[in-house]
């Protein structure tokens, strides 16, 4: 679905500061809506749209004259941007960025999300439900200057139709991101998994090193004062680059990171080859003279370089080494990282540390460099940190000796505590530790279970898994079952449908029945899950157990509810 921006008489100006000290402005074109210019036909068409979309749920309060007066008195001349699907991790970050830039921001979504809390505090006007009224001010005489639409929003959404009928430019996220990052030294962090953690870790390290960067991440980062953004005025822009719906194809990165590649977003990509084809298009967007930082341990990611050759770590690696790796592309250099010595950067002697994370020895082209210590557990986070090291060294190779740069990066790794919903500790009561994680793909489920085993080698592991979307579960059910087999006990809930309806004839019950090994149970309701686990754990409160809630939906509510219920039953004060 493509929404062209209309020719207009007003512009949004974003600061751009890349490669040259003189800032070069660029513009996103907007339509100036004048009261006199709106005909009665336009107003009637908007009213008709509202009637014809009665299926859209809206509980937003009617816009009052007093609110309009306050908003109009406080707004500046930059313009008003409305975000449709503002509650999602991606669009919420862009909305916060627009607020930081001084724009008037509003947005809508079908339900409230934690990302919307910070937006509301920062001054955004938020609506629950999609409605024409969300986009109207001053008795419908004023409309937004532009709207930005999440990839999850269908084309027939009433707010999109309203904007188009009134001549308001409509931007999909890919086009908006392309404009937003134009003129920056863009570092785009892509991959099927690990994007948020890698982008956050990279931005945290660069910020700690004194680089006045900008960053936009699709997750809440406790160590970012802006929640999921850093708003600086330097040259570098770290962006979590999402492949969903081809969103990253509007970018032109100076450095592109590929953390891995799997068949993910099965509702968009028919198979893994379709994912690879989209990533190859993304790599073609790297600027001439730029850099590709790629995980050589990932068969899918490495295939982007070899077009069918075996991946790093296989017995056929010598075929790649016969050519200069850094000259694999005519237009950009390539650096690989991983856990095998065939990569440019690799980690050896990976071991758990007393902080609950990982230590390892960093090696460059086979030679030991320095010992690295992380607070966050799991081999997947070792790989994420290697991507950060390779990127920072690439950025500053002409400005500082490599050893100095790495020592500085290592210092900041010591203090990085991770991001929200990535092996996040909810709480502890007696012998029970409760953690929550966003894992919603078999690769992610395996990684977080491995991390839990590393941190708690002597504790029983109880996993509560909420499948996310019917299409993903139907395509990857056997892979999910294999990943969950590594737990000691598994509870599977009903599917969190998100944007889908059940057309797959597969659900949580079928997944639970497929798991071989640990006791597995299907409990559809999250409230029933809390009751079941609270009863089980309170019977033996001193038993050493880790409860791990996994999924990208509302499963995140289970951990806090379970902790509170256990405190009530065991009469423990919080």
Automatic annotation (TrEMBL):
GO cellular component: cytoplasm
Gene Ontology molecular function: ATP binding; UDP-N-acetylmuramate-L-alanine ligase activity
Mur ligase C-terminal domain mapped to chain residues: 421-553
Residue ranges crossing the lipid bilayer per the database entry: none
EC number: 6.3.2.8
Domain Mur ligase N-terminal catalytic: 81-184
Keywords: ATP-binding, Cytoplasm, Ligase, Nucleotide-binding
Record localization: Cytoplasm
Organism per entry: Prunus persica
Pathways involved: Cell wall biogenesis; peptidoglycan biosynthesis
Reactions catalysed, as given in the entry: UDP-N-acetyl-alpha-D-muramate + L-alanine + ATP = UDP-N-acetyl-alpha-D-muramoyl-L-alanine + ADP + phosphate + H(+)
Record's signal peptide: none
Family matches, as Gene3D superfamilies: Mur ligase, C-terminal domain, Mur-like, catalytic domain, NAD(P)-binding Rossmann-like Domain
Mur ligase central domain residues: 189-299
Protein name, entry field: UDP-N-acetylmuramate--L-alanine ligase
Pfam families, alphabetized: Mur_ligase, Mur_ligase_C, Mur_ligase_M
InterPro entries, A to Z: Mur-like_cat_sf (IPR036565), Mur_ligase_C (IPR004101), Mur_ligase_C_dom_sf (IPR036615), Mur_ligase_cen (IPR013221), Mur_ligase_N (IPR000713), MurCDEF_pg_biosynth (IPR050061), UDP-N-AcMur_Ala_ligase_MurC (IPR005758)
């Amino acid at each position: 679905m493509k929404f062209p921006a209309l020719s207009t008489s007003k512009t949004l100006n974003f600061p751009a500061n890349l490669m040259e000290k003189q800032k070069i402005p660029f513009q996103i074109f907007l339509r100036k809506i004048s009261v006199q210019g709106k005909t009665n036909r336009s107003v009637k068409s908007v009213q008709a749209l509202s009637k014809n979309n009665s299926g859209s749920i809206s509980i937003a309060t009617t816009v009052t004259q007093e609110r309009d007066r306050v908003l109009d008195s406080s707004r500046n001349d930059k313009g008003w941007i409305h975000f449709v699907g503002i509650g999602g991790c991606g669009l919420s970050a862009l909305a916060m960025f627009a607020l930081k830039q001084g724009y008037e921001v509003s947005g809508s979504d079908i339900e409230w999300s934690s990302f919307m809390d910070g937006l509301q505090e920062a001054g955004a006007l938020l609506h629950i439900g999609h409605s024409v009224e969300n986009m109207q001010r001053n008795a419908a005489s004023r409309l937004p200057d532009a709207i930005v639409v999440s990839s999850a929003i269908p084309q027939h959404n009433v707010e999109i139709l309203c904007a188009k009928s009134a001549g308001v430019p409509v931007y999909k996220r890919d086009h908006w991101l392309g404009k937003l990052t134009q003129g920056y030294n863009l570092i785009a962090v892509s991959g099927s998994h690990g994007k948020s953690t890698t982008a956050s870790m990279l931005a945290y390290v660069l910020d700690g090193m004194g680089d006045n960067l900008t960053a936009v991440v699709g997750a809440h980062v406790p160590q970012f004062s802006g929640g999921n953004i850093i708003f600086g005025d330097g040259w570098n822009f770290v962006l979590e680059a999402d492949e969903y719906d081809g969103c990253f194809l509007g970018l032109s990165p100076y450095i592109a990171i590929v953390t891995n590649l799997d068949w993910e977003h099965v509702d968009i990509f028919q198979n893994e080859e379709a994912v690879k084809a989209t990533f190859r298009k993304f790599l073609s967007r790297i600027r001439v003279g730029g850099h590709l930082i790629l995980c050589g341990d990932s068969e899918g990611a490495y295939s982007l370089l070899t077009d069918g050759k075996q991946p790093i770590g296989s017995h056929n690696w010598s075929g790649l080494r016969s050519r200069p790796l850094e000259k694999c592309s005519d237009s950009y250099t390539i650096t690989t990282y991983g856990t095998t010595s065939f990569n440019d950067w690799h980690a050896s002697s990976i071991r758990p540390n007393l902080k609950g994370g990982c230590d390892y020895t960093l090696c460059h082209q086979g030679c030991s460099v320095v010992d690295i210590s992380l607070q966050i557990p799991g081999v997947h986070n070792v790989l994420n940190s290697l991507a950060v090291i390779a990127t920072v060294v690439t950025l500053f190779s002409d400005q500082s000796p490599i050893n100095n740069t790495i020592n500085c990066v290592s210092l900041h790794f010591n203090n990085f505590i991770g991001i929200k919903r990535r092996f996040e500790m909810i709480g502890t009561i007696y012998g029970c530790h409760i953690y929550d994680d966003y894992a919603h793909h078999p690769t992610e489920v395996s990684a977080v279970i491995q991390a839990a085993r590393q941190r708690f080698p002597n504790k029983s592991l109880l996993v509560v898994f909420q499948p996310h979307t019917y299409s993903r579960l139907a395509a990857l059910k056997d892979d999910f079952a294999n990943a969950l087999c590594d737990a000691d006990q598994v509870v599977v809930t009903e599917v969190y449908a998100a944007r889908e309806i059940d057309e797959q004839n597969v659900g949580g019950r079928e997944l639970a029945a497929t798991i071989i090994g640990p006791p597995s149970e299907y409990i559809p309701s999250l409230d029933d899950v809390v009751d079941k686990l609270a009863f089980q754990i309170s019977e033996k409160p001193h038993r050493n157990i880790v409860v791990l809630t996994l999924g990208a939906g509302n499963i995140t509510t289970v951990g806090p509810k379970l902790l509170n219920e256990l405190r009530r039953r065991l009469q423990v004060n919080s």
